[in-house]
Amino acid sequence: MAHLAHYRQAHPLPFVITHWINLLSMLLLIFTGFYIHFPFFDGWMNIARGVHLFCGFVIFINMLVRVVLAFIVDSAPFGGTREVAKDYKSFLPQADNRHQFGAWIKYYFFLKKDHPLSAKFGVLQKSTYVLVPLLICIMFFTGMSLWGVTSDVGPFAALNDLVGGVMIMRIIHFYLMWAFIIFTFIHVYLATIEGFGPVKLMFLRKESGGLVYDPELHNIVGEDTMGEEGH
Predict the structure, then answer these.
(1) What residue ranges in the chain does DSSP mark as E strands?
(2) What's the pTM?
(3) 192-196 contacts: CB < 8 A, separation 24 or more?
(4) pLDDT tens digit string along 67-79?
(5) Which CATH number fits the domain 8-224, given the four candidates 3.40.50.300, 3.30.565.10, 1.20.950.20, 1.10.10.10?
(6) Rounded to whole angstroms, how far apart are CA atoms 18 and 1?
(7) Domain boundaries, the chain
(8) Given the DSSP bridges, would you call strands 74-75 and 210-214 parallel, antiparallel or unpaired?
(9) Which residues pair with 75 in a beta bridge?
């Protein structure tokens, strides 16, 4: 096996739950966002706006919860190990992969056959994941600037004035949605490039075998032959 084993410690249950909430909220936000921008059937505008608003608050609050949990919940910062540490460390530069930017670029563009053995997230993975909370905040504040209840309130009104009015803000908000869509495709690609082990783990809580990694030695120390059946 050329890939690391995938254990539940890499994605503890609280993070699986926040991931599901993010996924469902994002899908509903994208669908209702398209509908609000261009109603493709009649009679659902009020429902679409209500669902869009609700999911906007959900994904924003869920993001805040996820950030807080990163400092509370332990997770495995490396693939192929059950050893854990505070989750936020997985998003910081790590000795195991901070020097691997070029190697990951080559692997993603099929210029390198084997992916680098490193920390849980590749360099580009953690870079995109760190940007997600910022993107959610921007989407939330542009959304609040469009909502009739808050569009005339302090910072939201100032933001509308800054960009040139509500209509311009609506266009900005709509095109920022495409950033979420592009991120979703990139996220799926980065998460599945070495196989569907991470997907099975995140969605089915199903572990899969592979190489075993020792965080202290920073090296492969064996192979877990559990196969694809998991525990």
Answers:
(1) 74-75, 85-86, 210-214, 219-224
(2) 0.85
(3) 193/107, 193/108, 193/115, 194/2, 194/3, 194/115, 195/3
(4) 999 999 999 988 8
(5) 1.20.950.20
(6) 30
(7) 8-224
(8) unpaired
(9) 85
